[in-house]
Amino acid sequence: MQVHHTVTKFTYLYLFCFRVLQFCTIPLDTAKVRLQLQRKTSTGDGSIPKYRGLLGTVATIAMEEGLAALWKGITAGLHRQFIYGGLRIGLYEPVKTFMVGSDFVGDIPLYQKILAAFITGAIAIAVANPTDLVKVRLQAEGKLPNGLPGRYAGALDAYFTIIRQEGLGALWTGLGPNIARNAIINAAELASYDQVKQTILQIPGFMDNVFTHLLAGLGAGFLAVCIGSPIDVVKSRMMGDSLYKSTLECFIKTLKNEGFSAFYKGFLPNFGRLGSWNVIMFLTLEQVKRIFTREVYYD
């Protein structure tokens, strides 16, 4: 009972940390979405893009729309983390146990951990897709002409408006790339964290401590963004507007019109956000694991 109480307590602490982190990093996410949705002009007139880089995008949004605009979509973002984060955390251990069997003894193979993370990430985001869609829609809405109201008054209004105008199924727009993005990033984070941590511990002077966990978390975040950024751009564009009829069309048009580099738009704010998430996630999980192991030992 004591072990179960400890795990439950730290699960709640873990989710609380992510709520705080969501609030602190939403400006980076908003900047990322604006950069990903910005298309290269084809007029050849030498016009400068509206959003340029992380700091330039944040400054432009703050000056044109007010500082609060950087937190557009925060309510839907919290909805997303509550559903997606909770399912991803809650399902990972049961899925992993189901794959190897309840009688399994020893270290679970890395490929099965990756597969479990891939499956749980896909299931979690399939359920949470409506929250992600609303978050992106709210973040994508920039400065409007004076007197012209926004499409949505807030997150709840966005849910109901989308259902009323586009149908219930519209809440799952971009589901394909969203599942691919979160499943791939989940698997990439897990595999790369273990590998980076193992590599760091082979360097003389490094120990299995908080500093090593921090470096490994940043490394996992960087590799996850490198792998997941192209599908993340496609996901944002599918959700942000209705120009594309399919994921494949979005990918092909983006590649044809803007080149491969377009798939890494918003890389810096994306890494700033995902890197922070990984550091907090793995630091917390490492501490939970140590306390859990200690309590099992002393029980």
From TrEMBL:
It comes from the Eukaryota. The keyword Transmembrane applies. Solcar repeats lie at residues 8-98, 108-199, 208-291. The chain crosses the membrane at residues 210-231. It is found in: Membrane. InterPro entries: MCP, MCP_dom_sf, MCP_transmembrane, Mito_Metabolite_Transporter. It holds the Pfam family Mito_carr. It is a multi-pass membrane protein. Keywords: Membrane, Repeat, Transmembrane, Transmembrane helix, Transport. The keyword NAD does not apply. Belongs to the mitochondrial carrier (TC 2.A.29) family. This is Uncoupling protein. It comes from Hevea brasiliensis.
